[in-house]
Design brief:
The complex is a heterodimer. In chain A, 0% of the residues lie in helices and 51% in strands. The relative contact order of chain A is 0.33. In chain A, the strands form 2 sheets. In chain A, strands 2, 4, 5, 6, 9, 10 and 11 form a 7-stranded mixed sheet that branches. A 4-stranded antiparallel sheet of chain A has the order 1-3-8-7, with no helix packed on it. By secondary structure, chain A is an all-beta fold. In chain A, a hairpin with a 2-residue loop joins strand 5 and strand 6. By secondary structure, chain B is an all-beta fold. The chains are: A mainly beta, B mainly beta. Chains A and B meet through strand 5 of A and strand 6 and strand 10 of B.
């Protein structure tokens, strides 16, 4: 079945460590997104990419980095510079860069910093 | 840039009762409006969207929403809820000046028997 796969589902890390969250889609979608979800705050956009080898900062990009070397993959690295990284991270994709299309979401990765 | 306000953070409701979730947005240009649902420990999925045309939009699982331009609102309704409707619901807005989708803070609906 087509969809978005995020891994790992749960991740623990120590302060000062970088961690990379994987996001893979087999929907042949052009656009991909990373959101952070915190209780009571909804979803906030970290980074997005509308085409391979190109990406833009979202509203809360500080302390994060991404790459888009392949259409199907959009990994997110949470660096040690991110001051409060414990959160639920959601990856999403959309068929094109237009405004009207549906976002398809993965099941999320829950990161806990110890 | 637009902002989205979901007026209720928690909505408890009894099974088979109606429910309304309120969403207001602020934007100076035309917008596209969406409602997404998130079941526990899962990603979000689209319930319905308004792009243009009829202001009453029907979605999946018996949900509908009405776009009111003068009140800048897009409230979600269901006439009779089921236990399985227990979830978090997000209103989202995009406008013609911005490729980003802005989400509200979410409304948690808890359906009790």
């Amino acid at each position: 079945d087509g969809g978005i796969t995020q891994s790992p589902k749960y991740l623990f890390r120590k302060e000062g460590q970088n961690v990379t969250l994987s996001c893979e889609q087999n929907l042949n979608h052009d656009a991909m997104y990373w959101y952070r979800q915190d209780p009571g705050q909804g979803l906030r956009l970290i980074y997005y990419s509308q085409i391979v080898n190109d990406f833009q900062k979202g509203d809360i990009a500080e302390g994060y980095s991404v790459s888009r070397e392949k259409k199907e993959s959009f990994p997110l690295t949470v660096t040690s510079a991110q001051k409060n990284p414990t959160a639920f991270y959601l990856c999403a994709s959309k068929a094109d860069r237009g405004l009207t299309g549906e976002l398809f979401f993965g099941e999320g990765s829950r990161l806990t910093v110890l | 840039a637009q902002s989205v306000t979901q007026l209720d953070s928690q909505v408890p409701v009894f099974e088979e009762a109606p429910v309304e979730l309120r969403c207001n947005y602020s934007s100076s240009v035309s917008v596209y409006l969406f409602w997404y649902v998130q079941y526990p420990n899962q990603g979000l999925q689209l319930l319905l969207k308004y792009l243009s045309g009829s202001t009453l939009v029907k979605g999946i699982n018996g949900f509908e929403a009405e776009f009111n331009k003068s009140q800048t609102s897009f409230h979600l309704r269901k006439p009779s809820v089921h236990i399985s409707d227990t979830a978090e619901y997000f209103c989202a807005v995009s406008d013609l000046n911005d490729y980003k989708l802005s989400f509200g803070a979410g409304t948690t609906v808890t359906v009790r028997a």
